[in-house]
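Support reply, case 0932

Customer input (verbatim):
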Amino acid sequence: MARRESLSEIRAANPDLGLSGNVISVAFNIPYSFTHHRGQDWDLRPRRGQSALFDSFAYLSSDSTPWNHTLVAWTGEIESAHDSASDFPAQAPEQPTKNSSQSTGSSTGSASSRNALSAPIPVDANSRLPTPPPVDGLWLPKEDQQKLEHALSHSKTIRTVPVWLSDEADDTDEGIMLKDQSRWRRYAHHDLYTLFHYKQNEPTDGRKERIQWADYYRMNQKFANKIIEIYKPGDIVVVHDFYLLLLPSMLRQRNHNMYISFFFHSPFPSSEFLRCLPRRKEILEGVLGANLIGFQSYSYSRHFLSCCTRILGFPSDTLGIDAYGSRVQVGVFPIGIDATKVEKHAWAKSVDEKYYALKKMYAGKKIIVGRDRLDSVRGVAQKLQAFERFLELYPEWREKVVLIQVTSPTSVEADRDGDETKIATRVNELVMKINGEYGSLGFSPVQHYPQYLNQDEYFALLRAGDIGLITSVRDGMNTTSLEYIVCQKDGSGPLILSEFSGTAGSLGDAIHINPWDLSGVAEKINCALTMPDAERKEMQQHLYKHVTTHNVQTWITKFIRKVYGVLGESNPANATPLLDRADMLSNYRSAEKRLLMFDYDGTLTPIVREPSAAIPSERVIQSLRRLAKDPKNSVWIISGRDQDFLKQHLGHISELGFSAEHGSFMRDPGSEEWINLAEKFDMGWQAEVMEVFQKYTDKVSGSFIERKRCALTWHYRLADPEQGIHMARECHKELESSVANKWDIEVMPGKANVEVRPTFINKGEIAKRLIARYHNPGGEPTELDPNPGRVEFALCMGDDFTDEDMFRSLNGATGEVLHADHVFTVTVGASTKVTLAKWHLLEPEDVIECVALLAGDQDASGRKLIGEVSLAALSTVEGRIPVSETSNL
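Our regenerated output:
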């Protein structure tokens, strides 16, 4: 085992991150189920399922890691001892807690069976599954809440902070009323779980879904509130699974510099399936608030990347997504199990007794083991059909092989809404059919047990198996496959594993099958039964080594290491600060001469699918008009648009100056004449570029060519996003290797376009011209500069890499020509965006707010039209809140 890194070593290797040493894990459920006894101690029982995830929490909380760990999770549906005392024993017989491990030993004693071969795993006939709490509500006094919170926060195993979910009106100082507790999981189960597992619900009028979505959104908000309460700068937040897909962005909105990661334990569907989800954009945008997103397998990560490109339009590659100006990294981290704990439990004396009983009961027969939840994605019906096909094709194995299939009730509410009954009926029909056709009075080839197993029975069954058979049609992580491998340490029973299982990619030595190919599965069963001992042992050795070395401890260690590795690559210390609007406004007002330069697309207007639809709003037009009329101001629009577009939409503001086609043309304020700066340049290159662009236009449906006077642009914004991005790279590569080698031109990848222009023409050259024109201390008034003197305020705003040329020119002029405090270069995008600008704004709406702030934007009554952020800046500069804001209070 690798040496454990100390926290001081991690901090030394990542000095700029300011790591606190705290890890906050966020999961939907606490690892315990709770029963409430009013005024008494709470009953805590280990929660079924997600054992690997809960083991990772226990490991992070132990002394084996350098981290201080806290779990934030929902309590789950709390049961009331008052309402169901007879149904809820203090300790569930099948899962003992640390304080009552002796209580389960008698659960097998009262079992009854019709014959020796029909019940190898006895069941307590008196045990009942818990019934859900009443819908009308469960009242928890505040002191009982605090008692549970104290117990969880002082747990020696996993320090836990519970999230209480209820309507705001039901959460009072006296206590909390929990009503219809299962509603918090309904959207995740009904819409997300089904879709992520390639199932679709019948269309409805949407009213129920709207309510469920509202609960899902509120639930994520309540998680965010709880995390913000305990968060400290430098904490690492790790969010788990599809119940909390909105949480990363909610946290990012509260704290831009928070270290957030997300791990999908479920499968992730292709874009063709995800686009069927009405809230698809909200779901994707929610999880993109994370710095790192992890998946079980490469195919799931590939689907996610494709969805972000096809649905949101963000460019992506195999390592991540470029979203909102920042990089969200994506990785594959197959989860493991606590193999040491499993092995210790599997070879306990209590398990030995049950194991030998099973082997004796089925002496002379091969045992195929199946253990699945009874939901629609576990493939139980496919397994039974394949086993039936096996008995049909290989009659020599009849009465020599038994399939022991254990099915536990589903935990997915969507499958409990009638589907579970249908699946159970189908499974029972198949069992009766197989046993009726291939069984006898003394033997049934299928032993089906629809029940939970206690731990000893479960491990005894896995040890006794000669074949482990998993036929899931879609799942994330399948712990049964990993636990089976550990339990076969001595037995070497082959594992037959569905290729649709999330663990298939990491268990390459298992026998992979397609559960829909019944004859193929039957053939693999026969191969496993007839496999030579040496081959079986070699297969088992490889699988055992993998499972024991790639365990849950290794998984969570690698994942967190990757988190702070990603953070180091995008160090927030290098982030561009948010524009200080108060500082900008103060400098603007004190300046006697000002130069303002604005990009157009993505700055004054948002990026849209159809370029011709990007027209300026009336607010933008009015604000620009006010700024341009001020004799102290020189205002320029420096755009990649052609002259006709700029003239049509902004040309009526005569005081504005324009630069079109990235600096190819200029029109001075007050003039109607366009100056062609590329007039003397040979444009012979355009014919060759047009030929290349036309070839790619023919290949990519929805793409088109925009021909400007000095530049050519190939647009693919209306094309299939993935195809467009791929073909744009090919087009760029072809132009660079051909036309660009013969002509003095520049090939520029833009936002859903590729543009070619002369090399000497760019926005930076325009910025240099304007600085030289307007910064002339001691000069005489001219027609182009009637207000000579120093430029005491320079503002430049843009959103893409073509605007970096302007930022570079202004930075170059800072110091020798312009005073550093008087220059404001602002990029539009995330703070983590790589840029030469000194400041950033998130989106065009923020730019418009800033332009309106400088212009003193007003409505017809004289009331200033500014947002809350700009109001704060204005109040800071003026030292008071404007009267227009308080007159109506």
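We compared this against your earlier run and they match. Two observations from our side: Confidence is low (pLDDT under 50) at residues 84-135. The two ends are 67 Å apart (CA to CA). Please reopen the case if you see a mismatch on your end.
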